[in-house]
## 1
Amino acid sequence: MLNVRVVQVVCALSTASFGAASVALAQDAHAHHTAHAHGAAAITDKARAQIDSARAAFSVYNTPAKAIAAGFIPVLGDIPLQGVHYVNREVVEAAQFDITKPSMLLFSQLGDSTALVGAAYGYRVPESDPDPAGFDGDADAWHEHPILARGGQRVTMVHLWLNDPPDGPFAHDNATLPFAARSMSTPDAAWLAGSDLRDLALALSLADATGERLVRMSRAGGEALRASLKADRDGINAIATQLSAAQNAGDRAQYLALANKAVAHSNNLISTLKNSAPNPAMREAVGRVIDEFIGNHSPPMTSTP
């Protein structure tokens, strides 16, 4: 079964201190109550200028050492499709939106190096307060992390990526990161896009170093559980090499077939972990923690050759 103590600790951390050690746990786009349901809105000229100013401001902290020297502290490790969140607690608690002063910096492994990939503006605000004014227009998709909120408050956040991912500069996730981590090319949007691209990216992430924490949570589950998780992760890693070969050959049908196999491994891994808890109450708690860590994965891919 899943390590019950680990789940209890993670759950406690997630509700205890947003500014200290819990800020980076959440990633479930489906569980977040998006107050501004406008992620697909067009980016205004003013917003684009603001994005350029923000990126120029936070790109000076382009190494973890520079981020730490500026008061940003890494919390809770590598989050799939987002990277490691380095949090400035003072900015979080001040809850004053400033384009040039994000409360978090996002670092991710890109090939053999760790790179700054984005920033986040995240604050704890009274439950009845609106989201910060944010960037001009309606394209900045603020989202909530209920598992991180204290009583009478909510945690609201928006990401800004250093380079635009497929879903735009304010996307909740950056599906290009797991490909870059493996020095793979992100597939063209004509091949794979939207939730299908995200599902494949998540699979690659869970089979890479990012997924190690989920596997460590299962260390009390016995050899059978560990063997099952290893088989799924090994399967994804084997498929990753074949994906590159199919992409280089221009074989979209083969690429999609392989991608579906990788996602099936990922879904099985997630299901195995969720069902490994010893009782219904723990399975519910485990499910919330895992969904916050990885985001709710989608049904099988809809893309066809």
## 2
Amino acid sequence: MEADKSVLPDLISGPEAATLVNEYWVNSGQAAQSPFRPVSQGGLGAPEDQQTYDRLAFLLRKGYIQDYNIGIQGGSNNSRYYLGAGYTDQDAFFKVIGFNRASIKFNFDQQLSKKVKIGLTNSISRSYRNQARLGDGPQGRLWGSAITGSTYSSTHDASGALIGLENTYSLVDNYDVNTVSLRYVGSAFAEFNILEGLKFKSSISTDYNLYDEYQYWNSATSIGSAVNGKAIESVTQNNAWINEQVLTYNRKFDAHNITVLLGNTLQSNTLKYTYAEGNGFANSNYKLISSAASTLASDRWTKHSIASYFGRIGYSFEDKYFAEASFRSDASSKFGKNNRRGYFPAIGASWRLKKENFLLDVSWISDLKLRASYGITGNQAGIDDFAARGLWSGGSPYADVSGTPLAGIGPLQLGNDDLRWEKTAQTSLGLDASFSKTA
């Protein structure tokens, strides 16, 4: 694949840019000081003698995508399996930027008996990404360096050495920003048909992601030149799991249909973040932060959990009258001990008028249903994991009598035992109608 150059900015040539610069000086009343005048007059040469340095053309390349997948599946009357693997490799239209991912997947279902079924899914992948700053920020911008540099300005001096630290050529040669992600997603379930219409299912799933981001800026870049090389690494470990038990009952008696659901859910999410930075390296062959002259590091850890119970009962008669009621109770570790658990009921009913005798023969009405519902929902988004807790920090150093810093403990946050769920009550009334065109 090749970049669509029609959407790219149309850069002016070196002579055109030099002419515009001269026009600026002329319009400013300083024509004699125009930089692009004959060399004999102390200038850089006439505008028409300037060369064109197209940094954007150098930065762009033909991108490609390679995608390979292989899979094996099979089974019998009582079992099914799938084993697959894949590999993707991509090079972006901009030099430096690239991505590759390798993955393996395994699924398996087994009918142990007429009443018992089990299954599992597993997927593990490793991704590697070369990243780059395109246009944001004042330093290390690949795109910005290519379009903001004057097209008459040379990229190399007479000896062939690169000119400037934000030179597109220099950035392409010295960019070292990448991320590695190792992710596992898996689940398992067991399903039991206890009686006719009565089913119980238990499942557990987990999502683990290890994300490692690394940057190294050597002394040939503007970011690294000030400190003789800079390395930054941040590692994020995120682990989420959920366990759910659901009991369902579905039975039809003549024109009556009843559905009952009872369940319990336990879920948790743990996040750990570690940051390290090193400044000052002997040379660009040393890239580990432990090789830096000065280092600093920090880390943080957080976790939240929810325990939920829920139920729902539904009833319908002759596919005309419907009623449903549900209730759930959620306890979140984010809230204070006085209000940790929230209760969220809901009720609804509907009447399918189209099924009534007085509308059955009305051909231009395809369906007509009147419905009403009321419910309360809870929200905990935006609440910190330990927002309700009184917290103390170990990062409160103090000095002894001789001025030596010692580790200390200090208050960080006041607790709030009354912090509670945000609740929203909603009432809905509606008439659903659909019509058909008749001849």
## 3
Amino acid sequence: MKIVIGSLSVLCILAAVGCAAPNLSSDRDERAMNGNHWLNESRGGQLTETTYLGPRDAFVAYDHSAEELLHTIDRVTAEEPGLTAGLPVSPPLSPGDRVRIDLPPKAFFQGVFDSSDSALAGVYEIGFDGRLKLPYIAAIQVAGLSLDQTEITVNRALETEGYFRPGMARLNLSIQEWAPVQVSVAGAVFYPGIVSVNPRGQQTSGDQLTLRGGSTAIKRFLTTALLSAGGVRPDADIQRIELVRGNKVHRLNLSGTVDGHRIEDMALIQGDQIRVPSRGLPDPRIIRPTAITPPGIRVFISNLTVPALNNASSAIGRHATSLPYGAQLHTAVVSGNCAGGAASTNSDRYAVLVTTDPVTRRPVTVERRVEQVLSQPQSRSVNPYLMPNDSVVCYDSDISNLRDIGRAISDILSPIGLFR
């Protein structure tokens, strides 16, 4: 009789909770709005709208009208963006750059070294102080000079020292290998700071030194530096990126990385400064993999819902937490195995997203019903974008919780089962 009464009680509780999929007007959502929520209990105080968004609260950070965006975004036309003026295609020399010096053949050579055309020939590396040290003459300051300017400076120095007759120095300089450089990246990027671009690998460096001259450093460009800083944030103004070189500021338009137009990707030198201004609102057009945004992101997912006892049994591994940039909450929910299963027991699950508001740059906790996210994937206010290092936690449904409570009560009332 007692068992029957207990079973009826459980059925009554389940009927009161309900087994249908939740919606935005459920009683549980109302309790969350009134502060009767797990997060409120953990903090011991009332929730604030700036840190917690319940299932019925829209996360509007990524959901702005076209009119709002037009106030901060210049309309992209079909015309090709203009190229930047005032910056050479080939960058000035930096410390660590390697130059090759060649002399004319003996038949055309005139000067004190006419018995040998290899006295000065060879590969030289610019020192940390920006000076180029050649045999027989004092070190020459060449950092910041173009290759042509360096060639003229070296020839004049040899003539001034008397090793060549005036106007007879004919040394030829060419780039043998571009060095790694450090530049600073600030503003609307995920990880601002000092970054190093164009790393010098042992194999690549060895192969480069066997060439007679010439080098193309494809990893020493502005777009590479932006990626090294984590990529630009959604609120970045990519049409007004600033490159500070010396006492000059050059404004660059990199919108072609998004719309497919040609851009002038500038080569960098040691000490360059890159500033990425923020437009104040996120632009959904750049929340996807591009040449200046991250190709993928790492998201931390925890799913300890029934029947999983740990994240490994939930099949949450490296591939589940490494998502393409531009993925939204529903992708993490499915990737973390937080969705699916029996509708009668699993449809009431919910997920909590801990992210950063792209406008205020403050931490935000967003709670969403799993079925709510899956049924409205097109709504960015319900199904927000995921950003690097976001955290997603999955929680069981009410029915699963009640079932676990019932099992705990049963173990207490029947302690013999604990020793089986």
